[in-house]
Design a protein that fits this description.
With about 230 residues, the protein is α/β, with parallel strands linked by helices. It folds into 2 domains: about 55 residues, no CATH class; about 160 residues, Rossmann fold, CATH 3.40.50. It has 8 helices and 7 strands, in the order ααααβαβαββαβαββ. Helix 1 packs across helix 3 and helix 1 packs across helix 6. The protein is elongated, with a radius of gyration of 19 Å. The protein starts with 10 loop residues before the first helix and ends with a strand. The relative contact order is 0.13.
Length: about 230
């Protein structure tokens, strides 16, 4: 059996296990472990929840901390400087950025969009388990009828290269954001068949300017292009 360490004794993993237990009864948890607020759980309680999740063979590797990834550090560093009032994370996927955001910005409301049912269900288990700041929805940003300026910041991280109608996605992000749209994309070709665009600085500049946003700041991190589009 793997050793418990501080990264495993994590409120997000505990929330997921608790949410999964509430939704389908697996694993079975004592009422105290199931209902106590996350921030009141002792290390011993977290370990008991984690062990129960292991015993149920839940996929707890999902909660590996990716904060040390340069592109994640870059985005978190920018967000710390402006401290968003709310966030829309488009294409949250496996939580590579979302989970570090939740750990570093407690209490900031974040809405996570994804197109895959199982990923939305997974994220909703976290909310069900006590991560109240998170709302997960199955929506396509290109056709989502949310009011203009609904979110302080919109993040499009490793997602635009996947979207067929990338121009529409950019327009939607600009429409939904009050202050900033933050983007990361691969900076060079790769072998991922799901990457249908290679979005260069010139291409992104054209897309955002056509969407009505001209205050663009670009930077680079290893293997990726980082963009902040300012709207205020």
């Amino acid at each position: 059996m793997e050793t418990i360490n501080d990264k495993m004794l994590d409120a997000l993993a505990s929330a997921y296990i608790r949410g999964h237990s509430r939704r389908c009864g697996i694993p079975s948890l004592e009422r105290e472990l199931l209902d106590s607020p996350l921030d009141t759980l002792s290390d011993d309680s977290l370990e008991r929840i984690y062990r129960a999740g292991q015993g149920a063979e839940l996929k707890l590797y999902r909660f590996k901390d990716h904060t040390d990834l340069p592109r994640v550090q870059k985005v978190l560093g920018f967000l710390r400087g402006i401290w968003p009032e709310s966030l829309l994370d488009v294409g949250s996927g496996r939580g590579v950025f979302l989970f570090p955001f939740l750990r570093n910005f407690p209490g900031v409301p974040v809405t996570a969009l994804d197109l895959l049912d199982y990923r939305v269900e997974f994220l909703n288990d976290l909310r069900l388990g006590g991560v109240d700041q998170l709302t997960a929805l199955k929506e396509n940003i290109c056709s989502w009828p949310q009011p203009d300026g609904s979110f302080d910041v919109v993040t499009l991280l490793e997602v635009l290269e996947h979207i067929p109608d990338v121009a529409n996605a950019v327009r939607a992000a600009v429409r939904l954001a009050r202050r900033y749209v933050v983007v990361t994309v691969p900076s060079k070709p790769d072998n991922n068949p799901e990457h249908i665009h290679l979005l260069t600085k010139d291409i992104l500049t054209d897309l955002f300017e056509k969407a009505g946003c001209r205050r663009l700041k670009f930077d680079g991190v290893p293997g990726h292009l980082f963009l902040v589009a300012s709207l205020d």
